[in-house]
Structures are given as C-alpha cells and as structure tokens.
Amino acid sequence: MFEPRYARRAEAMRASEIRELLKLLEKPGIISFAGGIPDPALFPRDAAAAAYAQILADPVASSQGLQYSVSEGYPPLRAWIARHMSRLGVPARADNILVTSGSQQALEFLGKLFITAGDTALVTAPTYLGALQAFSAYEPRYDTLRPESGNRTPASYAEAAALNGGSVKFAYVVPDFANPTGETLTADARHGLIALAEELDCPIIEDTAYVDLRFAGESVPAIQALDVERHGGDLNASRVIYCGTFSKTLTPGLRIGWVCAAESVVRRLTLIKQASDLNCSLINQMVMERLAVETYDAQVAKAGAHYRARRDAMLAALKANMPAGVTWTTPEGGLFIWVTLPRHMDGAEILQRAIVEAEVAFVPGGAFFTDGSGKNTMRLSYSLPSEAQITQGIARLGKLIASL
Amino acid sequence: MFEPRYARRAEAMRASEIRELLKLLEKPGIISFAGGIPDPALFPRDAAAAAYAQILADPVASSQGLQYSVSEGYPPLRAWIARHMSRLGVPARADNILVTSGSQQALEFLGKLFITAGDTALVTAPTYLGALQAFSAYEPRYDTLRPESGNRTPASYAEAAALNGGSVKFAYVVPDFANPTGETLTADARHGLIALAEELDCPIIEDTAYVDLRFAGESVPAIQALDVERHGGDLNASRVIYCGTFSKTLTPGLRIGWVCAAESVVRRLTLIKQASDLNCSLINQMVMERLAVETYDAQVAKAGAHYRARRDAMLAALKANMPAGVTWTTPEGGLFIWVTLPRHMDGAEILQRAIVEAEVAFVPGGAFFTDGSGKNTMRLSYSLPSEAQITQGIARLGKLIASL
After folding, report:
1. Is the Cβ pair B7, A119 closer than 8 Å?
2. Minimal CA–CA distance to A202: which of A257, A129, A143, A130?
3. Which of B277, B295, B313 finishes a domain?
4. What is the pLDDT of residues B11-36, one digit of tens each?
5. Do the chains contact at B62 and A43, CB–CB below 8 Å?
6. Which of A109, B5, B291, B330 is the most buried (most CB within 10 A)?
7. B272 plus B289 within the same structural domain
C-alpha cells in the first residue's frame, strides 16, 4: 500500500552492507576485521559516570539537561570545540560551531543544504559509504576526485555537471586515515583540492572522523586551516566545511559531533537541525563537554598507542602470510588497512568462504565504490580484535587467499 | 560564496518563530505562556540518575551503551513501546517500532520518505509548526484538512494535487490536545479521516505528542487503533503511521521518540535513520527503557494532575479577565489553550506590546497557519508558570486586550 506513495528518492536508499555485516560480529568464533568501530575498552566510562551523576544531582543542571534546548548546541561545548579548532589552526568562535548527532548527521544536513536532484557531488573512489548514503537521498550525480593521482580540469568537472542538468555542489573528502583506505592526503594534494574548489567556486566538505587517531608520521594541516590561511585567517571567508566527531576519540554512544564553518553556513545548518530533531540530547552534550575538558588529550594518547600496536600486529601478519601479488596500505593512524588482491580475485566471494572456512570477517572493498569497480579489494579493521587474534585471523585469511 | 550553491529547498527553510521566542523566556520578570515545553519539576531526575549510574557501573552494559548500535533501536525499548502500543489497541511487535530522536525526527523522516517536490501534504489549519518545518524541506504543496467541520471530497483533494504535478502523499494530524489548539478529534472525525485516506489511498500520520497528558474527559481511540480494527487486527495492513514520544511524559532531554507502523514502512524508515545519524544514543535508550518500566504510569498520573491545576487556573483567569468577543478552547489534556480575538486584532502586534507593557509572552497564532490567516489568534501554554503566575499574567494580558 505504501510503495506507490514513496518519494522518488526512496529508490536511492539502500541498506549498508557494512551495517548488515555488523550482525556477523555476534557469531561466536569469528575473528572480525569488519566493524571499524572503536574499542570499548578505551571508553572513558568512569568519567562519564561521574559527569552524569554530578549533573543529575544538581537541581538546576538536571532541569536544564533533561529539557529541550537550543538547536545550535550547548554553549560551553561549542566553546570547547571552538578552542579545539583553534589548536588546529582554525580560529573559530562558538558561532562557527553547530553540534550534530555524530558527523553522520552533519553529512546528511550538508546533502540537504546543497543538493538538488541532478546536481553533482565530487567524491573519491573509494569513499566512506555512510557519506554516499547521506547524500544519495538528495539524488546527486557523483563524479570522481583523484586528489593524489591528479584531478581532472575544473572545466571538465563543471561541463559534466552541466550536462547532467546541475552544477558541482561540493567536493567531499576524508583526508586523514580515510575510511576505507587508511590513507592520508599530502599537503600538496590538499592545496590542489582547494585550487580545484576555487575554480569551481564550490565548498569542500572535510570529514575528519579519524584525524586524532594519528600514531605515526607527521600531522598534515587541516584543509580548513590551509584555506583559512589563504583568506588572512578569516574562517567566515573559507569555503571549507569541517565535520568533526567525538565518536572515535571519546565515545560514539552519546552521538555528538560537530560542524565548524563560516557563520552563514552554520546558521543555515542550524535551521536544518531545528527541523530535523530540534537539538542533540542536552545532558549528553553537558557530559561530553566535561569529558572533553577532563580527558580529551589523555584519551587521544591512549587510543593512539592502543591502535598502533594493533596496526603493527596486522602489518606483520600480512607480511608473513599474504601470497605474492597482494598489496596493502600502511596507515599512520585510524582504524583501517586497505588490501588490494590480484585482479581476478573478488573480495565478496572471498568473504563468503572466509566466514565459513577461515572464521574471519572483513568488508569487501567494492562496497565503497560508486561505479561497481574495486571488486579485488578488502577493508580490514584492526580496532576490535586483540593482537593475538589479529595474528591468528590474518594467518587464516592469508592461507585461504594463497589457496585461490 | 555559499548562497549560489544552496539547494532549491533552502528557500523553504525558515527559522521557527517559536524557537526564537524561547529566548524571551530568559528575560527576567516576563511571565511566559509561549514555550509549550514540559515542566522540569516533573522530570524523573532521581530515576534517571540511578539508571545512568547502574548502566555505567556495569562493564558489559557500559561498553554497549557507549558504543554504536543498530539503527532500529535498543531491543528492550522497542519491546516496551510495542507493549505500550498494545495497551492502546494497536497489536504491535518490536519489528513495528523504530526509535527516533523525538517525534520531530519521525516527522522529518516521513517527509523524506514520501514527498517529492510538488506532491501534496494534507494538514489542518492551524497545525504544528515543527511538522511544517520538517515537511517543507521536501517542497510539498499543502492542502487543508477540516476533520471536524467537514473535509472536501476525496476527488477534490486528488484533483488539486494532480494540478500541482504530484499526488496526495499523506494526511498529517495531531488528534489529541493538538499543538496549537488544545483540541481533540472526535471518534467520528477520526473515522472520517480514515475514510478520506482510504479513498485517496494515502497514509495518515498520527502525531500523538500530547496524548498521555489527558486530565479530563474520555479517551478517544487512536486513529491507528481504529484503522487496525478495520483490518482485522493486522497492523501491517494499516495505513496509519503513529509518531509517539517520551518528551512530554518523561523527559525531552534524552531525545527519544518512536514510530509505530507496518513493518514495510519501519524498514524504509530504518534505512533513513541509518543514513541520517546511524542510531539514537544507546545509553539514552537504555536509560529511557528503565524509566519507562519503572515510572511511566506514575509520571503520567503526576503530569495529568499537575497540568490540570494549571489549565484550571488559566481558564478561570481568562473568564475573569478577557473582554467580550474573546473566546478560547477548553482542552482535556496537553499544554495549550487557543484564544481567538475579535477579527480586527493582531496577535503579533499584541505580543510586542504585551512583552513591554504587560510583561507577558505568548505565541501569535498566525505562525501555525500555512496561508497567512489566523492573525487574530494566540496560543497560550500553561505548562511552565505557577498557578499564581498564570492568574497574574492572564489578568495583565486581559487588561491590555480590553484596552485595545
């Protein structure tokens, strides 16, 4: 009965293979490299317990925390985030910050704000699947960025967009330890992206979900910091919209992320927040502000050491077990290693056998491409299994792949 | 720089007068009848503190509560809501329930699921402003339902929708103690609405934000319960999509509401949830489940007695102070009384003077109409001021209106 009444966009909405795969995690005996979620052993549980207890013991704070609130976000949390952005070279004020339900919500809002059906969104291939899900409801056409190996000319992107009846509305990238590849854009690639966006006169959406999980190598400046520098330090003149989150550093369970951008965009996004869900849980924002003040730097340090050891275990196991012809990335942070198999192999087919024969799970890389390519790739996450499980699981997976 | 890149829909996004008015609440000395938010004195603060503390003291529960989770919602909470719906005559199972960030998010999702630009949404006049904000981003045309005084013929609605290049995608109503009028649809009006929707073969969205705040009169069955009855008790055959919330009975601060509907629609909405913000804060869902189990019936009883006393104070004060020609509704629950002034008066103009001269705030009724009518109306909320403040504030407002 409902089917004929659905909006045209409903055709573009599909279930995430990854989210469906999360269900596999619960099968006993499986060593899963599929999830890509943070290790709960790192969650600041005691600090969260203390923060909730203190707020709820205070009659004024609890009345506030359990009530509706302003759509922009809890002022002290916005102020903390603005200071955090300043440390990254982005001189933000609280008015440049919108608090969102994780950075996923920020991506959804940006799709809603910019995309009319038929417009073009520039994305890398592969890219974060959740971003594609967020944008696709607004019926864009996708065109491909290759920030490291050379983008096409601005005119070529603009003409292809016009042929489709729209224009290029934004360029979306995950510049640090990207999901799914684990790779980081060089400063040169970031400057090149800014130059392209200037020619196209379009915003850049910088999704930094993993940026604070660096455990090796040198930090690269945020694209927003580079662009603000080109505008004499004026964030309100920058075309970069920065999406941040506490999900990977503190906890994803409170659903708190943020947008940092020019005030004009933040005001627009605030209207969208108001119409979408009024405001983020205020008690969670109050707790997150305390966690950020009290634990942020320590949590970042702890997470870096924790994930570095797991990455090292996975790199060593890949080297020891993968047959010739298999290659992989060496991430300097984040949660993912990206594996490229010989051309004739298919990650999705291997997954079926891996679960049954090797009791190992991962995400086939094809899921992260918009064009059906990438079948001979796999995303491996080292965030949840122990080092011993990583060693064991990669050995089993390597044996399977070597037998193909 | 961003302006030329915004989607066409951005034109339809406007700030809520009501949300802007919330800022007036903070001006000292003002007696505000504007807000329409629950009284924080009713929040189950101690039970919430105990629930957070217990969950966070448990290593397994805290790891779960602070982690990502499934988009559908926390299974025990979905099960509680399904039992709750069964008490309302809707035989729901957990698979019929999606947990949302308040019912506001449910409305946004339903706009996204059903409306292609140019389609028609049927709404009452006046109606809940937040619903219009949620739907308007999807660029519908609105047509007017008059469930009590007589809807137009189905053909007339369908033809008008077709002339606009779309079709009628749903009928939206707040049947119980509506925001803004405080009025409740009779059983006859509900049956009439179902008959209209059957002819148009469109869903009905039943927004029940206030339904459990009944403090007088007799309950009227939910539209969904009436429709399920017509389908032999099969919820999966019903065209009614029920949007519920804990915001008015327990607390809005955890941002937890729900949709109860046929499984096919819940599955679609779950995909939208996944793309929008992955999932509602799991720790908040776990806490809400405990609050619901432990306190729901007691909270409903407490809230009813509390708001009844305030409504009574406001009705008495209106009777004592309003000049002839002013009329108002007598709500049997909820938070609002709707005042109709003589035709020549303008609620928005009176508000300006009321704030300065009478130190009283309310919401001018015109904000709740899509067609610019209703200027001579006001929405008064009795939820926050004490009975003494209500008596005093209405006396001051009545004096001002009598002087016009």
Report:
1. yes
2. A143
3. B295
4. 877 766 655 655 655 677 899 999 88
5. yes
6. A109
7. yes
